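Obj: model holo form, ligand = magnesium ion.
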Amino acid sequence: MNVLAISNQKGGVGKTTTAISLAAALAEKGSRILLVDLDPQANATSGLGVSKHQPRSVYGVLVRDEPIAEAILPTSVPGLDIVPSSPDMAGAEVELVPLLAREFRLREALPKAGEYDTVLIDCPPSLGLLTVNALVAADPALLPVHGEDHPPDGPALPPAADARVPLPPPPGRPSRLVQGGFGSPFGEGRADRRRRTPPDNV
Ligand SMILES: Nc1ncnc2c1ncn2[C@@H]1O[C@H](COP(=O)(O)OP(=O)(O)O)[C@@H](O)[C@H]1O
Ligand SMILES: [Mg+2]
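Output (holo structure tokens):
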């Protein structure tokens, strides 16, 4: 089972869009895919047509030790299942703090999810414990970025996470980062702006 975290501390860079699109594409190719929605905004959940008001969600798995298998729901895409997020997740960052092995909750839960080829984790736009849980559980992390001035700061995330989790990657799971990006939604990227801005104003 491959586990891929899609992460960047900046919002609006395409994490959720990448997670949904990649998950659906891999499922269409015949893989069994599980998408874990770790973002309290639950955009991956609603984006796949699943209500974020479920009796079981990723919140219960992380905070209440509920079995992950019971939180898994099918989506309309054959082969693609989801562990939905929920409004409770807004408090999870704080509620995780006093819990035992707070950085390892997701990593310990995933092997009990069932038979999946790939697990994709859609992260919240933050450097908190939810993102740390995703990075600890994942093999590689995929970091979508905008071709803009500020978003390149976002990939500072892994060292920050490493500082909180001073442990080597699990055996057979070397830390790997993959960065991908798309242009500014405003029609102009960093390179375009540099070309038209005097250098001492950059
Ligand atoms: N490859 C892309 N090209 C252009 N726009 C994109 C791309 N991926 C995402 N977007 C748009 O960017 C916005 C933010 O995407 P989203 O996936 O919600 O970001 P995040 O999860 O990082 O907050 C959305 O309006 C989405 O439609
Ligand atoms: Mg998102």
